[in-house]
């Protein structure tokens, strides 16, 4: 029986016609290993997602990604995924950006991921409840994820500290961490000291995204101290913060280790631009990409 027919049986009178049409496509029914649903074509809620997973039961072991951006799914769907992960043996990516997830099911999902092949989890754009970040941090200590994106999730200071405290675990495999758009760093000194320590003790980390976190020059200094002692760090994103022209001098040590620094939407101005330009032509500079969009730097 085709996937479309199985879905229709489960959904009955509540069948989603757009989803049924999508599943009826021969290419998806026979070959697709990625479940990617564009919300402009199909809009899912928890019940529709449950029926869809049931219809995909025969395909479950071969699915490599589930991408459901901006759908009306909640923690109930994440809980269902947690339960189904043992059957999703080839699943590498879960992307639920911009859904209606509050986070209560995220720790359980991370716990299930620990015994799965999932390596990428994208939660960005879901406003998580206050205490969720603390529990997420605790689960990361044992989690094999390599990419975790939680931009614009409203992470609190306690949640951030928990995350950076636990990613230093030897069992943590995180290569890319995006916590952009969390609550403004308060107290900045305390949080940035945790970031500095984590970077020094977490040599696996390669990319760190700290956009829109209220970072100032002092906090950047602490972050850079950590970056210079983190052997595999290649990418630092500190765009859209509260940095001044002094940030250009602060990042100087990293121009010999990092490949990308994004300072966009900070007040770097002309003086900072000149400092950065001089660093770029110095022998040993490793920078391939330098982001300076909207930095109040005038054209020569």
From TrEMBL:
<dbReference type="InterPro" id="IPR051279">
    <property type="entry name" value="PP1-Reg/Actin-Interact_Protein"/>
</dbReference>
<keyword id="KW-0677">Repeat</keyword>
<keyword id="KW-0433">Leucine-rich repeat</keyword>
<dbReference type="InterPro" id="IPR032675">
    <property type="entry name" value="LRR_dom_sf"/>
</dbReference>
<dbReference type="Pfam" id="PF13516">
    <property type="entry name" value="LRR_6"/>
</dbReference>
<protein>
    <recommendedName>
        <fullName>Protein phosphatase 1 regulatory subunit 37</fullName>
    </recommendedName>
</protein>
<comment type="similarity">
    <text>Belongs to the PPP1R37 family.</text>
</comment>
<dbReference type="InterPro" id="IPR001611">
    <property type="entry name" value="Leu-rich_rpt"/>
</dbReference>
């Amino acid at each position: 029986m085709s996937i479309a027919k199985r879905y229709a049986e489960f959904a009955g009178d509540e069948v989603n016609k757009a989803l049924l049409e999508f599943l009826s496509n021969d290419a998806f029914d026979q070959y697709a290993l990625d479940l990617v649903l564009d919300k402009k074509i199909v809009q899912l809620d928890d019940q529709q997602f449950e029926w869809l997973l049931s219809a995909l039961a025969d395909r479950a072991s071969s699915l490599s990604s589930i991408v459901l951006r901006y759908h009306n799914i909640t923690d109930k769907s994440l809980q269902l995924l947690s339960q189904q992960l043992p059957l999703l043996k080839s699943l590498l990516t879960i992307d639920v950006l911009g859904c209606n997830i509050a986070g209560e099911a995220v720790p359980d999902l991370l716990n299930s991921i620990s015994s799965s092949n999932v390596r990428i989890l994208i939660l960005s754009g879901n406003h998580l409840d206050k205490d969720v970040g603390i529990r997420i941090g605790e689960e990361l200590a044992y989690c094999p994820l390599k990419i975790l994106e939680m931009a614009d999730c409203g992470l609190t200071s306690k949640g951030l500290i928990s995350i950076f405290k636990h990613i230093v675990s030897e069992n943590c495999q995180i290569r890319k961490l995006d916590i952009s758009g969390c609550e403004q760093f308060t107290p900045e000194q305390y949080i940035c000291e945790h970031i500095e320590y984590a970077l020094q003790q977490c040599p696996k980390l390669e990319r760190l995204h700290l956009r829109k976190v209220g970072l100032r020059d002092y906090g950047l200094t602490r972050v850079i101290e950590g970056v210079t002692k983190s052997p595999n760090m290649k990418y630092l994103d500190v765009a859209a913060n509260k940095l001044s022209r002094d940030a250009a001098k602060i990042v100087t040590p990293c121009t010999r280790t990092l490949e990308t620094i994004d300072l966009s939407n900070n007040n770097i101005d002309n003086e900072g631009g000149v400092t950065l330009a001089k660093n770029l032509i110095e022998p040993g500079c490793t920078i391939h990409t330098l982001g300076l969009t909207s930095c109040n730097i005038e054209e020569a």
